[in-house]
Amino acid sequence: MTSQKITVERLRQLEMMMLIRAYEQQLVELQQGGAPGTCTSVGQEACAVGVMDALDARDRILTNHRSGGHLIARGAEPGRLMAEVLGRVDGYCRGRSGTLHISAKELGVMLTSTIVGGELSMATGVALAQTMGHGEPGGITVAIFGDGAACEGIFHESLNLAVQWKLPLLFICENNQWQAYVHRRETMGENAIAEWARGHGLPVEILDGNDVEAVQAAAVRAVSAIRASGKPRFLELQTYRLRGHFEPDDQAYVDAAELASWSARDPIALQTARLKEAGVLDEAELAALEGRVRRRIEEALAFAQASPWPEPQTLTDDVYA
Questions:
Q1: Tally of structural domains, the chain
Q2: How do the residues of the chain divide into helix, strand and coil, expressed in percent and rounded to 5?
Q3: Residue 108 lies in a domain
Q4: Is residue 316 domain-resident?
Q5: What is the pTM of this model?
Q6: CB burial readout 151-186, b (16+ within 10 A) else e
Q7: What is the mean predicted confidence (pLDDT) over 255-274?
Q8: Domain range spanning residue 245?
């Protein structure tokens, strides 16, 4: 890849992280107007962008309740996502899923699960189907979950099955330090997640989840290895949830010093500083990025609010296949 292409790619990644942040901040603002509450991934944008940039159209994704960033980084339209949150018919699931159960077949996003760890067991099934010839050749499955899910029994069952059945499955643990309102330190040892995965025989890599370039590079390595071997791998992305578990949440239970420390490592600020230092981003270009993002979110909100409500007679549609 030429230096010019690399520059364009890095700027695109920064803009994508900014778009994810702006989308979720808009959802937070909508709480004041009666929109349903949501779980945001503010502070975790580098994880979403870095991982999704390593995948292609053949791959299948199963994610968790903080899925907004994953969906947008995969190519979801913010307007359709916002319409879904507001319960409108132009949403990805025709307004039936809210923020917590969105699927988008056209993007390969099979499932957003609110059952903690629920995506893990289903991902093994999707990966098994791929080994049986379903889907495009060379496709892999990606399961994205948090440190809380790693404390569930299904975590160990799923990793064990993936290793024993040699499934083309990439496990992505976004270790954001919080399990709802409980800190990770209260439920596990310092390096427990990686050690548990290694104990099942998985190759593991631990990395800075706030560095989008590091995440992408590690994800590319893992995806390439899975495509070549057909065997699973595991990435632990160490990041931080800068907002509360669920909107609204005053975060009164969060240590202020810890929050400040992680806020200083905001992935968007880090990448912005890196690109400025490299001489590929100046204040005018940054303002242009911010302007494009702002317009996209304004257009998304207008689209969502203009979308009609579902008709009452469609209430029982799609209940049975």
A1: 1
A2: 50, 10, 40
A3: yes
A4: no
A5: 0.94
A6: bbebbbebbebbbeeebbbbbbbbbbbbbeeeebee
A7: 96
A8: 3-307
